[in-house]
Each structure stands twice: as C-alpha cells, then as structure tokens.
Specification:
Strand content: 15-25%
CATH topology of the largest domain: Rossmann fold
Strand order of the largest sheet: 3-4-2-1-5-6
Largest sheet: 6 strands, parallel
CATH superfamily of the largest domain: Phosphoglycerate kinase, N-terminal domain
Distance between the termini: 9 Å
Order of helices and strands: EHEHEHEHHEEHEHEHHEEEEHEHEHEHH
C-alpha cells in the first residue's frame, strides 16, 4: 500500500496541516497528562517538518466532548507538554476553525508550530461535514495524516479535508503502522501465529476469517474462548458467552480445521458476584476465590487462561517467525487474573519473531508486563488495527495520495 510520504513533499515555506492523535489520558481534576506516548509517537513527523522549514499546524481530537465546547477536553495542556518535548514554543489557537485559527496559521514562520483546539468541539468533525472540512483545509497548503488511531473513521479531519489538497501524505507513524500491518497480512514470515483475545467473538469474527487462510496457528483467549468452548459442547459455567454467536463459532471451528486452532485447555475460574449498577444502570461484577479448573463448573466464571494453556501457547509462540496479537487472555486489569496475559506477552517478546501488537488493551498489557521494548511494533490504534486485520480499507488511509 504505497502512499505519498512526507519525504516526497516540498516542505520549505509551506503551511502543513497535520492530523495527529493527541487523545491522551489525563487527570480529571488537574488535566495533567498521565501518559504522553501518543505525543512522543508524533515527534518524528513534527521534527522532520520543522527541520525542513515547514510551518506546522497540528489538529487532533481529545476525549468525547459530544460536539460541544467543554474545557474538560481542551488541548491546551497538550500544547504545553508538546512545547516542553520540542524545547520550543508551541502556539495555541482557541478554536480549530475561524478568524483566530486562520490568522495564527498565516502568521507562522518557517519551523514554528501551532496546535488547534479540539476538533470535536464541533459536531461537524465526526459528521464529516464538507463545509467544516473546507474551513480546516484553508489553514494549510499541504496535508499530512499521522493519526493511525483515527484512520478507520471518515471524519472531516481524516477524509473530508483531503478533497481540498493536491497532495495528501502519510506521516512517519502512519507509514510505520501501514508497513507493519500490511507485511503481516500480505507476506508474513512463516510460521505465522495470531493470538486473539478479548471479550467478544463478534468483535473478532472478521479478523479470524481473514487470518485463517494466512496463519499457521490461531490461539484464542479471553472471554471469547468460552463461546467457542460452548460451541464444542463444553461446560463454561457462568462465563461471559455470546449465545447468539454459538452457531457462528461452530462455523469458524469447521473452517479452521486446516490450521492449528487452539482453545484454552484449562482456566482460572472464580465466583461471579454482582455489584452495584454503574452510572448507566448496567450490572457490575467482581470475581472472587479463583481456582484452577479444566472445565468450568456452574457458579464459576472463567477469568484467565490456566497454566497448561500458558505452557502450550508459549510453546507455539516460541516457534513463530511472525506474531500478531490483539486482545488480552483474561481480566488482566485485576492482578490475580493477569498471569495468562503477561506470560503470553513475555513469550511473544522472547521469540525474536516480528511481533505486532494491536492497540488498546493489548498495548496496555504489553507495557504493564514490562516487555514493550522487545515488541517489534505496538500499534497506536486499537479499532484501526482491528479493522486493518479484518482486511478492511481504512478511509483515512484510502484518502491519502497514491505514489
């Protein structure tokens, strides 16, 4: 998938409008940034633009302000953090469109940086409104998308705006994401092992079906495994299952007979206790008194893969030359139920294989297990990487100029 890259652009003196992903976790009271890894991920592109004499205009969303101005989600703290990381001033526009943003963009000198206020203060951003996209485009001469995490959404800043530029290029982070994920799907080194976890089979059906013809082994963990086990007629107790997806799970089990399709052979199971409903009225659960079981009896729910499964999955991973992992093996946020996820993370890190970890929970698990430095590529986009693995064309990538 060869798209125009910032290396292909004549940058000196040009106003370059860059979509970045600065949707960073913050302290709710102080708005202090708790994890700046997304900002750090954009620095190679920003620094390259500065060094080549561009006038850099950055735009991003932050949180879910629902199309309203909500200063809980202002990007001003991000501008301050970026200034600190770049070791130079970063100008800040109090809106992403309008007279002030236009004036500040026109006044920029070569090598200067401007960050616009939250795109999602305008409902038109997520609606991909043509008028809003045109207003954004008036700020720049060239467009660069370095926000892979939003590339699966056809929003004004990722898709609509590109219609107003002759050249739409990928930044370095976007290029890296496309290259790693494309290589895993199109020409993986074999054995190719896919590890898929998470809560729901329905979230991963398209990924599994896309990977069956490509992978040598698919290892299933997380709550989605219980729907497959139920499809095999096994006892799963009170585990989270999608009963309406059992027939689909049976179909996948048939399709996957030519490859090594592994389900957990043992589990950590715990008593399921219902707690107070959350703010939206949904029931909440806690899991107590964990124990190792081979089949999950009534009254217990699976919360992690067991030691036999860890050993078997680690053995398969050890022989791999390409590993793609999306989704945890259990409720890893609870320390007692994190062993399966962390052990698999360590097994992936120890292989020396080309390893690609999807964003979201998988990325969190790899960082928490302390092996992030040994993973070839950790995706910055959970939803985007999942849709890429499904074989979907991402609107934000499709909108970039072909080489």
């Amino acid at each position: 998938m060869k798209k125009l890259n910032i290396r292909d652009l004549e940058l000196k003196g040009k106003k370059v409008l860059v979509r970045v992903d600065f949707n960073v976790p913050q302290d709710k009271k102080t708005l202090a940034i708790k994890d700046d890894s997304r900002i750090l991920g954009a620095l190679p592109t920003i620094n390259y633009l500065i060094e080549h004499g561009a006038k850099v205009i950055l735009m991003s969303h932050l949180g879910r302000p629902e199309g309203q101005v909500n200063m809980q989600f202002t990007l001003k703290p991000v501008a301050d953090k970026l200034s600190e990381l770049l070791k130079k001033p970063v100008k800040f526009a109090a809106d992403c469109i309008g007279p002030e943003a236009l004036k500040l963009s026109q006044e920029l000198q070569e090598g200067q940086v401007l960050l616009l206020e939250n795109l999602r203060f305008h409902a038109e951003e997520e609606k991909n409104d043509p008028g809003f996209a045109k207003q954004l485009s008036e700020l720049g001469d060239l467009y660069v998308n370095d926000a892979f995490g939003t590339a699966h959404r056809a929003h004004a800043s990722t898709e609509g705006v590109t219609k107003h530029f002759k050249q739409n290029a990928a930044g370095f982070l976007m290029e890296k994401e496309i290259d790693y994920l494309s290589a895993a799907l199109d020409k993986p080194d074999h054995p190719f092992v896919a590890i898929l976890g998470g809560a729901k089979v329905s979230d991963k059906i398209a990924v599994i079906e896309n990977l069956i013809p490509k992978a040598d082994a698919i290892l299933i963990g997380g709550a989605m495994a219980y729907t497959f086990l139920l499809a095999q007629g096994k006892e799963v107790g009170s585990s989270l299952v999608e009963k309406d997806k059992v027939e689909m799970a049976k179909d996948i089990l048939k399709k996957s007979q030519e490859i090594n399709f592994l389900l957990p052979s043992d589990h950590i199971a715990a008593e399921k206790k219902e707690g107070q409903p959350d703010k939206k009225g949904k029931p909440t659960f806690s899991f107590v008194n964990p124990q190792e079981v081979t089949e999950i009896p009534k009254g217990l729910a699976g919360v992690d893969i067991g030691p036999q499964t860890i050993a078997e999955y680690s053995r398969v991973v050890a022989g791999a030359k390409t590993v793609v992992w999306n989704g945890p093996m259990g409720i890893f946020e609870t320390p007692e139920y994190a062993r399966g996820t962390f052990e698999i993370a360590r097994a992936v890190a120890a292989t020396g294989a080309k390893s690609i970890v999807g964003g979201g929970d998988s990325a969190s698990a790899v960082h928490l297990s302390g092996v992030a430095q040994k993973i070839s590529h950790i995706s910055t986009g959970g939803g985007a990487s999942l849709e890429f693995l499904e074989g979907k064309v991402l609107p934000g990538v499709a909108a970039l100029t072909d080489k």
